[in-house]
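Tokens as discussed.
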């Protein structure tokens, strides 16, 4: 049994920012596709009707990246504070057998 006693805040923030970038791009694509249907756009997000395509393409991915980085930074900071009280997240790790390792790892 292993315990996650501390997270590196910046690596967590960067990882979550990149994950959120994917969601931001996906959201932008969905909103671009939906923008042509006024009735559907009014139900999802009426503000999109006033936006241009470049604004949608820039706004959503950038805002998602900023939010993801911020949440990763704050979440990592508070995790490192709380872990002192809880002892951390317990995880079980198992080592792969040689038959499951990729060929390049076997040659070492």
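Sequence:
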């Amino acid at each position: 049994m292993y315990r996650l006693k501390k997270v590196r805040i910046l690596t967590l923030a960067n990882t979550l920012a990149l994950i959120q970038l994917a969601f931001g791009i996906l959201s932008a694509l969905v909103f671009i596709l939906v923008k042509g249907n006024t009735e559907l756009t009014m139900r999802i997000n009426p503000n999109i009707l006033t936006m241009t395509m470049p604004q949608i393409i820039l706004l959503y991915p950038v805002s998602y990246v900023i939010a993801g980085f911020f949440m990763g930074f704050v979440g990592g900071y508070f995790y490192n504070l709380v872990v002192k009280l809880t002892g951390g997240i317990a995880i079980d790790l198992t080592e792969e057998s040689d038959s499951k390792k990729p060929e390049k790892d076997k040659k070492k």
